Amino acid sequence: MSYHIFAWVKESYKMEDFTLARVIHIVAVVLWIGGVGMVTTVIIPAVKKMKSKEDQIKTFEQIEGKFALQAKITTLLTGLSGFYMLYVLDGWDRYLDYKFWWIHAMTLVWILFTIVLFILEPFVLHRLFKKYANENPGKTFAVMHRVHWILLIISLITTAGAVAGSHGWFWV
Length: 172
Ligand code: HEM
Hints:
The protein is mostly helical. The chain starts with a helix and ends in a 6-residue tail after the last helix. It has one domain (2-166). The chain is elongated. The chain contains four helices and no strands. The mean pLDDT is 94. The structure holds protoporphyrin IX containing FE.
């Protein structure tokens, strides 16, 4: 009898931990992907309209520089809470089932942003951006805008698939 009570208490703590991980996961995703949406649909279009390239580069670097730190923290929190949920669910074999394409999509989006934020941006992209924005600001901002749109659309499809899938709506 007492064994059952202990097992029940242990299980309910696990449930609460799982729910807490889900809460952290979603708050982090909202702040992170919401920020990507803001940069893509509002900030880059506004910067593109600025008259001088000096203003364009300075404004974009200031805004994206601040957002980069926030995105690094939220990406980290999303990954930690996501892998913790998979561990509690013991759901690693979901990676072997195409029905769980949204688990693959979440992991892929996370890997993409992690590589961009922690490796490419500080070591490569920042330097390239400065060089090309000085040489040809119109083309540089156009390319950057397109890349942001692609990342935003993939992230939104992933978010929609993850909500539907984790609430039992499988499309395939
Ligand atoms: C390493 C990366 C990630 C892992 C391991 C991961 C894992 C998980 C797991 C295990 C769940 C719960 C599934 C279930 O209840 O059956 C979940 C839910 C969810 N995740 Fe992720 N995730 C990751 C990244 C992301 C990213 C990048 C996004 C958004 C672009 C995202 C958005 C969501 C959403 C919206 C839910 C649904 C929550 C709900 O409706 O209750 N996740 N994730």
